Amino acid sequence: MREHIFLPKPIFPRHVCFPDFIGGYSDFPEHAVNREYRTKENNLDRFYNLHIVLDGKGFLHTEGKSYELTRGQGFLYGPGLRQIYHSDAHHPWSIRWVHFFGVHLEELLGGKGLDEPWLFALSDLQPVQTLMEKLLLLGRTYQIDDEYSVASTLYELLTRLQLSASQINIPSSPAADKIRAAANYVRSHSSEPFTLEQAAALAGYSTHYFSRKFSQTFGMSFPEFLLESRSLHAKRLLASTGLSVKLIALETGFSQTSYFSACFRRLEGMTPLEFRNIHKSSEA
Fold this sequence. Notes:
The protein is of the alpha+beta class. The chain has helices at 105-109, 125-140, 147-164, 174-188, 196-203, 207-218, 222-240, 245-251, 257-268, 272-283, and strands at residues 2-6, 18-25, 32-35, 48-55, 57-62, 65-70, 73-77, 83-87, 94-101, 118-122, 165-167. It has a 7-stranded antiparallel β-sheet with strand order 1-2-9-4-7-10-11, covered by helices on one side. Strands 3-8-5-6 form a 4-stranded antiparallel β-sheet, with no helix packed on it. A hairpin with a 2-residue loop joins strand 5 (57-62) and strand 6. Helix 4 crosses helix 5 and helix 5 crosses helix 6 (207-218). The longest helix is centred in the C-terminal third of the chain and has 19 residues, at 222-240. The protein is elongated and about 80 Å long. The termini are far apart.
């Protein structure tokens, strides 16, 4: 079996998920893929790539590591990732795949596949295999009215993966490094106007993914981190300068003195002037 089915663009533009390219191989030991980072082949600089092994075995290579994949296992690449995988020459895998896109997929998939391929094992292959075969069947005879069935079948497939698949590769954490680098920049420029969207752009991630990863990394939301950074700057100025509270508010990124004072009191349990008086008296 060697099957490639390309689907037309959906009429409704905001499906949660929709396949662009589906197919499968069986008894084809020559199956091998080596795609560069940000490849435009099959639109994979913008689309996800999901493969599920039904039988036989194959291999995936990433970050200097190799993984053997057998029946009931699979992998998911997010948009733009370097992709290297191939069938075993002596026991070629029977594999089904779907390349897909959609709205808010990072949220649906929990960020899986964005930083590195997600390799998984299914606790129950049969329901997922059935859904993959349904997608192929719909693709072979695709008509305009099938758009909704195709979208809902892929959605069910992806949600089943979320519930029944467990990760089999140990993730590295390039995302955490990018998040920390963005946080360090924000900390040193906290007096400037900063939005969540701008911070996410510094790390190279979507707002939703950045926000979720930021909270996981620092144990606080991005707005909380920014407020803490501004408060730390304000504390230094209060303790070491004679600047007025109004000027300190402006120097630390607050547009209104009253808002600055309210935030400072909530964080420190005292007003800016009370904080200054405590530190002035401790110095004397």
